[in-house]
């Protein structure tokens, strides 16, 4: 984790902002498994080319973010990282 993991200045440069933001969090209505997997795949593709992916990843793990795709990781993937650190 970077020393400034809790610094959020990087967020302004995230590719998840704007038109694509709906891909990073589940909708308020029921989402089928195939729809969730498709949405997550699209979000992760955006993360993979984002210049602040590492900062986003570090931040989400540091604060134990419980929702959404952050730094290219789902909620479950972040929980697995934290469990492996224990």
Please give a structural write-up.
The protein is mainly α and 86 residues long. It has one domain. 44% of the residues lie in helices and 0% in strands. The chain has helices at 33-48, 53-63, 75-85. The longest helix has 16 residues, at 33-48. The mean pLDDT is 90.
What descriptive keywords fit this protein?
3 helices, mainly alpha, single chain
Q: How is the topology of this model organized?
A:
Elements: H1 33-48, H2 53-63, H3 75-85
Summarize the entry for a quick read.
The radius of gyration is 13 Å and the shape is globular. With 86 residues, the chain is an all-alpha fold. It is built from three helices and no strands.
Q: So how many helices? A: 3
Give the strand content: under 5%
Helical content band: 40-55%
Per DSSP E runs of 2 or more residues, the count of β-strands stands at 0
N to C succession of SSEs: HHH
Major sheet characteristics: none
Number of domains: 1
Round the mean pLDDT to the nearest integer and report it. 90
